[in-house]
């Protein structure tokens, strides 16, 4: 179907027929493979299916079962399918970190492929600790580190595609070296468009001052995946003014339930639809840690909201 066609969704909204909506453990307050403050994985699977989602991500490796047969059974009997796995990398440190990086990546990639996923979300490592806010390294990369990041990402993309048939999508993220519009554009311009795509997280990009619609319209051919998220402008203003790290900012509620924050999601979804390609749009609302009964009602309301947008 032509993405620019006249088909309409609910109440005359555009039908977003190229957008495949899902959710992730992150929307249930899951940041780590094992943490007593997180909901058990069985409850996550039950509730994400009950909220009306069909697609999920793996979340941190080890949170969901890592045996492919068991994971396939647990997802299938709930009517769920897996869109992607996720890895954190420190490729800006150069060849010295390749072996350790690949040892982890191949675990996640193998599991993702085994359960039918087509993508691997790659997140750069934090320059300050997301729990303690302690400075880990300088927030700006050197020219040499930018080169390491670009070439290392291309190498990773090639290996993941060749060995596992997955496409990597690199995720700009708050408190990493890939965050602002300037940094994202520098990264895209430095990497091979035939190998490296972007996972545009609307919340993180807004957190760092970026305009998601502008990025989609400018670098549309590089947008390979979406994370749908919003930030609370008032909380964000305080976070920026006081230099608050991302982890404490999340505990303050900087990521909020749609449609109460920014960016507005209908224009983002419409811009993505105009690209004329199938895209996953995975809902994430960072809430670590959160009460176990909090995520499900939010997930239900968010799915209802996205349906009202045509997705």
Automatic annotation (TrEMBL):
Cross-referenced Gene3D superfamilies: Divalent-metal-dependent TIM barrel enzymes
Domain Xylose isomerase-like TIM barrel: 45-308
InterPro entries: IolE/XylAMocC-like, Xyl_isomerase-like_sf, Xyl_isomerase-like_TIM-brl
Domain of life where this protein originates: Bacteria
Database matches in Pfam families: AP_endonuc_2
Protein name stated in the entry: 2-keto-myo-inositol dehydratase
Classification of source organism: Bacteria, Bacillati, Actinomycetota, Actinomycetes, Kitasatosporales
């Amino acid at each position: 179907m032509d993405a620019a066609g006249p088909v309409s969704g609910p109440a005359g909204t555009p039908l977003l027929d190229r957008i495949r909506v899902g959710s992730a453990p992150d929307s249930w307050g899951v940041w780590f493979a094992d943490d007593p403050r997180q909901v058990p994985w069985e409850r996550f699977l039950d509730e994400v299916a009950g909220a009306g989602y069909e697609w999920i991500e793996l979340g941190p490796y080890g949170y969901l079962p890592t045996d492919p047969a068991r994971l396939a059974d647990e997802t299938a009997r709930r009517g769920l399918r897996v869109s992607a796995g996720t890895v954190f990398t420190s490729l800006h440190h150069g060849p010295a970190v390749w072996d350790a990086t690949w040892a982890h990546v191949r675990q996640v990639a193998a599991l993702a492929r085994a359960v039918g996923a087509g993508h691997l979300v790659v997140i750069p490592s934090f320059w300050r600790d997301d729990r303690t806010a302690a400075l880990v390294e300088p927030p700006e990369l050197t020219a040499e580190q930018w080169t390491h990041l670009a070439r290392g990402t291309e190498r990773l993309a090639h290996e993941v595609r060749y060995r596992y048939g997955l496409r990597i999508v690199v995720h700009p993220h708050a408190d990493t070296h890939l965050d602002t519009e300037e940094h994202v554009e520098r990264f895209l311009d430095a990497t091979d468009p035939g190998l490296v795509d972007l996972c545009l997280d609307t919340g993180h990009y807004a957190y760092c001052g970026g305009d998601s619609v502008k990025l989609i319209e400018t670098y549309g051919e590089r947008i390979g995946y979406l994370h749908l998220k919003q930030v609370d402008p008032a909380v964000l203003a305080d976070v920026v003014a006081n230099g608050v790290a991302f982890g404490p900012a999340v505990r303050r509620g900087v990521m909020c339930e749609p449609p109460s924050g920014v960016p507005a999601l209908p224009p983002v979804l419409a811009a993505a639809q105009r690209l004329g390609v199938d895209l996953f749009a995975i809902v994430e609302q960072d809430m670590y840690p959160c009460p176990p009964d909090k995520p499900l009602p939010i997930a239900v309301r968010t799915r209802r909201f996205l349906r009202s947008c045509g997705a």
